[in-house]
Amino acid sequence: MRSDLPSQLNRPLTIGQTTIDCRLVLAPMTLLGHIAFRELLAGFGGYGLLFGEMCSAKRIPREARTGSAYFSWREAERRHLVMQIFGADPPAMATAARIIEEKGLYGVDLNFGCSVATICKQSCGAALLKTPDQAARIVDAVRRAVTIPLFVKFRTGWTDDPAIPVDLARRFASAGADALTFHPRVAPDRRSRPPRWDYIKRVKDAVTIPVFGNGDVFDETDCLRMLKTTGCDGVAIGRMAIARPWLMAQMVGLHSPDTGIYRRTAFAMLDLMERHFDDRRALRRYKKFALYYSANFKFGHNFYKRIGNTQDLKAVKGELAAFFNGNPETTTRPNMNFFL
Fold first, then answer.
1. pTM of the entire structure?
2. Is 114 a catalytic residue?
3. I need a labelling partner for 76 at 20 to 30 A (CA). Which of 106, 123, 280, 327 fits?
């Protein structure tokens, strides 16, 4: 079953006026899909596109690439990086998208999926799914502002009804979206219940533009099953890419991990954090990374606690050395408790 996966993923896909060579993409994740992690992932390869962290559309005009924790990128990734923005005001979203195009980035992604209270209280993210007309106006405004590929990331809505995402998908496609990334969970659930993959099929059947499925793809078997059961055009990998940054390369047949990969990757991630962020931000982001990386170990809660209790980057290095010098046991399938 798994041997069929590379042939499914390593196929060209047309998005707008462009074509990508691989149908596996990194999903946008705040405090996780930053410039340092994307450089780590790029070392393994295996992706068609990378998505940046969620950025406030209102802040982008004032953000300096060299000093921003969110709106930053490497030259090597510019041509396959999609920058995600959030906001509720169509003109502000259009202005931010125009800047993203001017910077030469591959595309822009509209966040209609974040259900965190601080975002929804601003009538942004998943809150916009309650007002589909407004959400469609934002898509239309951004479409009129830019020619680069336009993506929309969205959830089922606020009620568990498959008719809702189907209607939303049609609205977004009609308003000018080039591709959709659909996470089939009701917004209030966050991750308390499994995603409804059958809803992905309904969304895919409702539109002609590419649809990327997202949600609970933890290994190669999951990925192939999503592709075959939903008919989606590609798969967006989120937290599992954080836990195993080599997984996407493994899925497309580029990489076969060895036993030393866990230690090397943990230290490489820390080095990249130090290169791209100040000490405070690097420490915070490394602790976020460590939560999902802990899922690889039989005593992962101990690893996460040790990293979580550190006060500076030097202490993190010491804890990493002590942990891996003890030859920790790894798991075949990550501990799902870390993904709740």
1. 0.96
2. yes
3. 280
